[in-house]
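Next comes one such specimen:
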Amino acid sequence: MRDGRPAGTARRVLDATGPVREGMWSYEPPYPRFRMGPLGPVPWAGAPVRVEVFEGMHSQTGTYLETAAHFFGDGAAPFVDDLPVASLLRIPAVVLHVERTGRAFAPGAERAAIDADDLARAAGGRPVPEGAALLVATGWGRFWMHTRYLDDSPFLRASAMDWLLARRPFLVGSDFARWENLERPEGFFPAFFASGALMLAPLAALEDWPSDRARLTALPLRIPGTSGVPCRAVLEEAEDAGGGAP
Protein backbone atom coordinates (compact mmCIF):
# COMPACT_ATOMS: atom_id res chain seq x y z
CA MET A 1 0.00 0.00 0.00
CA ARG A 2 1.45 3.40 -0.96
CA ASP A 3 -0.13 5.20 1.93
CA GLY A 4 -2.46 4.62 4.84
CA ARG A 5 -2.06 2.09 7.61
CA PRO A 6 -1.81 -1.50 6.34
CA ALA A 7 -3.37 -4.14 8.57
CA GLY A 8 -1.09 -5.22 11.37
CA THR A 9 1.16 -2.15 11.39
CA ALA A 10 1.15 0.72 13.85
CA ARG A 11 2.59 3.48 11.68
CA ARG A 12 1.78 5.04 8.34
CA VAL A 13 4.14 3.99 5.51
CA LEU A 14 4.70 5.52 2.07
CA ASP A 15 6.66 4.00 -0.79
CA ALA A 16 8.31 7.11 -2.27
CA THR A 17 10.11 5.19 -5.02
CA GLY A 18 9.35 6.03 -8.63
CA PRO A 19 8.50 2.96 -10.74
CA VAL A 20 11.14 1.81 -13.22
CA ARG A 21 9.20 1.10 -16.39
CA GLU A 22 9.36 1.66 -20.13
CA GLY A 23 8.33 5.16 -21.17
CA MET A 24 9.34 6.76 -17.88
CA TRP A 25 11.41 9.94 -17.76
CA SER A 26 15.08 9.59 -18.65
CA TYR A 27 18.09 11.83 -18.86
CA GLU A 28 18.99 12.74 -22.42
CA PRO A 29 21.61 10.87 -24.55
CA PRO A 30 24.16 9.51 -24.01
CA TYR A 31 21.99 8.04 -21.24
CA PRO A 32 20.15 4.94 -22.51
CA ARG A 33 16.43 4.48 -22.02
CA PHE A 34 15.11 1.64 -19.89
CA ARG A 35 13.59 -1.38 -21.62
CA MET A 36 12.32 -4.64 -20.23
CA GLY A 37 11.70 -7.84 -22.12
CA PRO A 38 11.53 -11.60 -21.64
CA LEU A 39 14.67 -13.69 -21.53
CA GLY A 40 13.01 -16.47 -23.46
CA PRO A 41 13.19 -20.23 -22.90
CA VAL A 42 15.75 -21.57 -20.43
CA PRO A 43 16.41 -25.13 -21.64
CA TRP A 44 18.31 -26.28 -18.55
CA ALA A 45 15.62 -25.12 -16.10
CA GLY A 46 13.59 -28.28 -16.60
CA ALA A 47 10.31 -26.36 -16.60
CA PRO A 48 8.86 -23.17 -18.08
CA VAL A 49 10.19 -20.16 -16.15
CA ARG A 50 9.63 -16.44 -16.45
CA VAL A 51 12.70 -14.20 -16.39
CA GLU A 52 12.91 -10.52 -17.38
CA VAL A 53 15.90 -8.80 -18.96
CA PHE A 54 16.54 -5.15 -18.09
CA GLU A 55 18.22 -3.09 -20.77
CA GLY A 56 19.39 0.48 -20.47
CA MET A 57 19.68 0.53 -16.67
CA HIS A 58 22.40 2.74 -15.23
CA SER A 59 23.32 4.29 -11.88
CA GLN A 60 20.78 7.10 -12.30
CA THR A 61 17.78 5.04 -13.35
CA GLY A 62 14.57 5.90 -11.52
CA THR A 63 14.99 6.80 -7.86
CA TYR A 64 18.68 6.61 -7.00
CA LEU A 65 21.05 7.23 -4.12
CA GLU A 66 24.27 9.04 -4.98
CA THR A 67 27.52 10.01 -3.24
CA ALA A 68 30.05 12.74 -4.01
CA ALA A 69 32.02 10.21 -6.05
CA HIS A 70 29.66 11.15 -8.89
CA PHE A 71 31.16 14.64 -8.93
CA PHE A 72 34.70 14.21 -7.62
CA GLY A 73 35.56 10.80 -9.07
CA ASP A 74 37.14 7.63 -7.71
CA GLY A 75 38.97 7.85 -4.41
CA ALA A 76 37.67 11.29 -3.49
CA ALA A 77 34.47 10.06 -1.87
CA PRO A 78 32.95 6.74 -0.85
CA PHE A 79 31.00 4.64 -3.28
CA VAL A 80 27.42 3.81 -2.38
CA ASP A 81 28.34 0.28 -1.32
CA ASP A 82 30.85 1.72 1.15
CA LEU A 83 28.05 3.31 3.18
CA PRO A 84 27.12 1.34 6.31
CA VAL A 85 23.71 -0.08 5.62
CA ALA A 86 22.63 0.84 9.16
CA SER A 87 23.13 4.52 8.27
CA LEU A 88 20.42 4.23 5.60
CA LEU A 89 17.74 2.86 7.89
CA ARG A 90 15.06 5.02 9.51
CA ILE A 91 16.89 8.31 8.99
CA PRO A 92 15.13 11.25 10.68
CA ALA A 93 13.55 13.13 7.78
CA VAL A 94 11.99 16.54 7.25
CA VAL A 95 9.59 16.81 4.32
CA LEU A 96 9.56 20.38 3.01
CA HIS A 97 6.12 20.62 1.40
CA VAL A 98 6.72 23.54 -0.96
CA GLU A 99 3.55 22.60 -2.84
CA ARG A 100 1.52 23.45 0.28
CA THR A 101 2.82 27.03 0.50
CA GLY A 102 0.75 28.31 -2.42
CA ARG A 103 3.20 27.29 -5.14
CA ALA A 104 1.85 25.29 -8.10
CA PHE A 105 4.04 23.12 -10.30
CA ALA A 106 2.90 21.56 -13.57
CA PRO A 107 4.24 20.83 -17.08
CA GLY A 108 3.65 23.38 -19.77
CA ALA A 109 5.05 26.40 -17.98
CA GLU A 110 8.48 27.96 -17.59
CA ARG A 111 10.63 26.10 -15.10
CA ALA A 112 9.83 27.31 -11.59
CA ALA A 113 12.66 28.28 -9.27
CA ILE A 114 12.63 27.22 -5.62
CA ASP A 115 14.53 29.61 -3.36
CA ALA A 116 15.43 29.86 0.31
CA ASP A 117 12.20 31.68 1.16
CA ASP A 118 10.16 28.81 -0.28
CA LEU A 119 11.98 26.31 1.90
CA ALA A 120 11.70 28.50 4.98
CA ARG A 121 7.95 28.82 4.45
CA ALA A 122 7.69 25.06 3.99
CA ALA A 123 9.57 24.52 7.26
CA GLY A 124 6.99 26.75 8.93
CA GLY A 125 9.38 28.15 11.49
CA ARG A 126 10.02 24.76 13.05
CA PRO A 127 13.64 23.83 13.81
CA VAL A 128 15.34 21.50 11.35
CA PRO A 129 17.70 19.10 13.12
CA GLU A 130 21.23 18.55 11.88
CA GLY A 131 22.01 15.21 10.29
CA ALA A 132 18.52 14.70 8.90
CA ALA A 133 17.26 13.81 5.44
CA LEU A 134 15.77 16.96 3.92
CA LEU A 135 13.20 16.14 1.24
CA VAL A 136 11.88 18.88 -1.06
CA ALA A 137 8.30 18.09 -2.06
CA THR A 138 6.60 19.85 -4.97
CA GLY A 139 4.17 17.21 -6.24
CA TRP A 140 6.29 16.74 -9.36
CA GLY A 141 6.29 12.98 -8.88
CA ARG A 142 2.81 12.96 -10.40
CA PHE A 143 4.44 13.63 -13.78
CA TRP A 144 6.87 10.68 -13.69
CA MET A 145 5.64 9.44 -17.10
CA HIS A 146 5.11 12.89 -18.65
CA THR A 147 7.13 13.76 -21.75
CA ARG A 148 8.04 17.14 -20.16
CA TYR A 149 9.12 15.65 -16.84
CA LEU A 150 12.69 16.95 -17.16
CA ASP A 151 12.19 19.98 -19.38
CA ASP A 152 9.54 21.69 -17.22
CA SER A 153 10.51 20.55 -13.74
CA PRO A 154 11.23 22.91 -10.85
CA PHE A 155 14.87 23.70 -10.06
CA LEU A 156 16.78 24.98 -7.04
CA ARG A 157 18.22 28.44 -6.63
CA ALA A 158 21.66 28.71 -5.07
CA SER A 159 19.94 30.32 -2.08
CA ALA A 160 17.82 27.17 -1.64
CA MET A 161 20.90 24.98 -1.63
CA ASP A 162 22.59 27.34 0.84
CA TRP A 163 19.52 27.03 3.09
CA LEU A 164 19.61 23.23 2.89
CA LEU A 165 23.35 22.91 3.50
CA ALA A 166 23.20 25.32 6.44
CA ARG A 167 21.13 22.63 8.22
CA ARG A 168 24.06 20.16 7.79
CA PRO A 169 21.92 17.39 6.31
CA PHE A 170 22.92 13.76 6.06
CA LEU A 171 20.95 13.54 2.82
CA VAL A 172 19.07 15.87 0.49
CA GLY A 173 16.27 14.54 -1.69
CA SER A 174 13.50 15.85 -3.91
CA ASP A 175 10.62 14.71 -6.08
CA PHE A 176 12.20 16.19 -9.22
CA ALA A 177 15.36 15.02 -10.95
CA ARG A 178 16.98 18.13 -12.40
CA TRP A 179 18.04 20.41 -9.57
CA GLU A 180 20.12 22.73 -11.74
CA ASN A 181 19.02 25.31 -14.31
CA LEU A 182 21.08 24.20 -17.32
CA GLU A 183 20.39 27.39 -19.28
CA ARG A 184 21.62 29.70 -16.48
CA PRO A 185 23.38 27.47 -13.95
CA GLU A 186 23.16 28.32 -10.29
CA GLY A 187 26.50 26.59 -9.73
CA PHE A 188 25.81 24.98 -6.35
CA PHE A 189 26.92 21.41 -7.05
CA PRO A 190 30.56 21.85 -5.90
CA ALA A 191 29.32 23.06 -2.50
CA PHE A 192 26.69 20.34 -2.29
CA PHE A 193 29.04 17.47 -2.99
CA ALA A 194 31.81 18.96 -0.86
CA SER A 195 29.38 18.92 2.09
CA GLY A 196 29.35 15.12 2.06
CA ALA A 197 25.56 14.97 1.94
CA LEU A 198 24.04 12.13 -0.02
CA MET A 199 21.63 12.77 -2.89
CA LEU A 200 18.32 10.90 -3.18
CA ALA A 201 16.28 11.71 -6.25
CA PRO A 202 13.85 11.77 -7.80
CA LEU A 203 11.24 10.58 -5.35
CA ALA A 204 7.55 10.10 -6.06
CA ALA A 205 4.31 10.63 -4.12
CA LEU A 206 5.83 12.97 -1.51
CA GLU A 207 2.69 15.07 -1.84
CA ASP A 208 0.82 12.11 -0.33
CA TRP A 209 2.83 12.28 2.89
CA PRO A 210 0.55 14.08 5.36
CA SER A 211 3.12 15.61 7.73
CA ASP A 212 6.51 17.30 7.63
CA ARG A 213 8.27 14.63 9.70
CA ALA A 214 9.12 11.03 8.89
CA ARG A 215 11.71 8.31 9.09
CA LEU A 216 13.36 7.51 5.76
CA THR A 217 14.86 4.20 4.68
CA ALA A 218 16.76 4.23 1.38
CA LEU A 219 18.18 0.86 0.38
CA PRO A 220 20.25 0.81 -2.83
CA LEU A 221 21.03 -2.28 -4.85
CA ARG A 222 24.35 -3.73 -3.71
CA ILE A 223 26.54 -2.94 -6.71
CA PRO A 224 30.14 -2.23 -5.61
CA GLY A 225 32.21 0.46 -7.29
CA THR A 226 29.48 2.90 -8.30
CA SER A 227 28.72 6.46 -7.25
CA GLY A 228 24.97 6.08 -7.69
CA VAL A 229 22.58 3.14 -7.47
CA PRO A 230 18.83 2.71 -8.01
CA CYS A 231 17.17 2.22 -4.65
CA ARG A 232 13.91 1.74 -2.79
CA ALA A 233 12.91 4.72 -0.68
CA VAL A 234 10.29 4.33 2.04
CA LEU A 235 8.90 6.83 4.54
CA GLU A 236 7.37 5.78 7.80
CA GLU A 237 5.67 7.78 10.48
CA ALA A 238 8.05 9.26 13.02
CA GLU A 239 7.63 8.29 16.65
CA ASP A 240 6.39 11.78 17.49
CA ALA A 241 3.19 11.72 15.43
CA GLY A 242 2.21 14.86 17.29
CA GLY A 243 4.88 16.95 15.58
CA GLY A 244 8.14 17.21 17.54
CA ALA A 245 11.63 16.79 16.12
CA PRO A 246 12.18 13.44 14.45
In short: Confidence is low (pLDDT under 50) at residues 241-246. The first strand starts at residue 13 and ends at 15.
